[in-house]
Amino acid sequence: MKILFVMRNAHYLRNYESVLNGLCRRHHRVVVGLEFDTETVPAELRRFATKLARRNQSYMEIVSLPERRSFWSGTARQLRALRDYCRYLQPPHQESRRCAERAKSVLIWPLRFMTLIPRRLRGTTARLVGKLTAWAEQVLPASRGAKEALRLHDPDVVLVTPLIDIGSDQVDYVKACQAMRIPCGHCVASWDNLTNKGLIKALPDRVFVWNGAQEREAVELHGIPPERVRVTGAQIFDQWFDYKPRRSREVFCQQLGLDPARPILLYTASSVFICRREIDFVLRWLAALRASADGQLRDANVIIRPHPKAAKTIDQWNDQRLGELGPVVVFPRRGHMPVSARTRDDYFDSLFHCAAVVGINTSAMLEAGILGRRCFTILLDGVREGQQGMVHFQHLTRDGFLGVANSLEEHLRQLSQEIEGDPSSTADFVRTFLRPYGLDQAGTPIFIAQIEDMEELAVEGRTVPAWLGWMLCPLLLPIMLLNALFDDLGRRGRQAVRLARRVASKSHKHGVRAVRRIWRLMRQGRSALGYVLRSIGLLSPVAQAPQQSSLQVESPSVDPAPVETTSVAEAKRRQVA
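The chain above was modelled as a monomer; its predicted structure follows.
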């Protein structure tokens, strides 16, 4: 069987590494199509992609998919983003203001009219606009570039991930598969994808989810028929169930400069979307920790693990104040992804040797639960929107897995109980959320079996005839014209802002240089104003460097002329006479 696995970029290779290896071991031909080239991702992921392709070179290849620009591309993107924006104005997403702002940022100005509607009417209006955009999605034709990619690779099955980005044009692949009668599956990449991203706007033949909670989200929030949803377990975490620590506690602490006799608290940072300036929260937490009445907490080792995808804010962890709050170490310093043997060892050993995990809202808490480590968080102003404002945060609070405190005092009591008492069990959460078929049943084999079952799947095809779409598409021309106008204005505006910043930067640099030169001339007395200021004692002269004697300066490139002695000069005068 030949499989075309469409991925947004190389980041998603890590999510499906075990599935790709398993498919190749079963002699399936796999073509991983990346919409964005691997050059746009960090070097560690490029090396990971190269090793993965080399390991399975007989059955797997990684290619770049062609760009899919079409007559309706801009219009389709705006309609899809508008539908995603309307989602966050209806239950149960009214409190997800950060998600709503992300969707709104993709829209052109005329389509942001929802903010002008009174709040009490906003939900009803959003529901109506959502239905109109869903109708428009049905009449829009599939991208010609997506169809050409399918003809080029001629797959038996197509898999798409993540599909739910705001305004995502991966919908074109699902619609192209429907038109060409090729089975298509949507692979839910992460635990938060069905709640804080966009909607599934075209109906895949299969939707692969982790657990029963995501199955309900796919049905209730995205309108997927229950018979098309398949629960497989979280295949991305299979590797951690059988992983072993590579270093003892003593060696690990010695390498990090920590005291092995003290307990270790691991702080796992969140993504930029959840909290952009997380160092402020961490400093506040550390200050409360060091002021605790519990000696173990007051002297505990703290390891801060930066989020691997927060490269834009990685420098915040260089704050000098961290060194003033007891034994604290940032590890790894640049927040590497666990995609190589060394980075995986570092990540696993950090989780294995810690007594508890603290954070705001991050998937690292799921991996900590696999190792039996309890996780804790605090609902404080400044970070609360990244917790209670996200629907997927509720997954962590189920089965008592995440210890949630409303104050730092309550949080410290929870940490003390966890360290001094018997560690809490995380098995119930792991069983229901990550391995719904049992702790001993990995998700990867189930995932592969479900993909293999798709080969003989009968595809219904598009429900709207193509001729009807061509008749109704002219109704969308006003949106296309608005998008062309405002997108061009926005692009020119962004270019103007960048140009203004460059000009301001250069002007500042040259201005400072000119002021320094004038100031130097004034202090040297080479201007009238400088002479007056020096004369009344308001300006001190520049200290002149001591002049060296000409006999002490010797040019290395020119040989000095020989110095004639008195006897030689006198002999020459006699010869002339």
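The chain has 23 helices and 13 strands.
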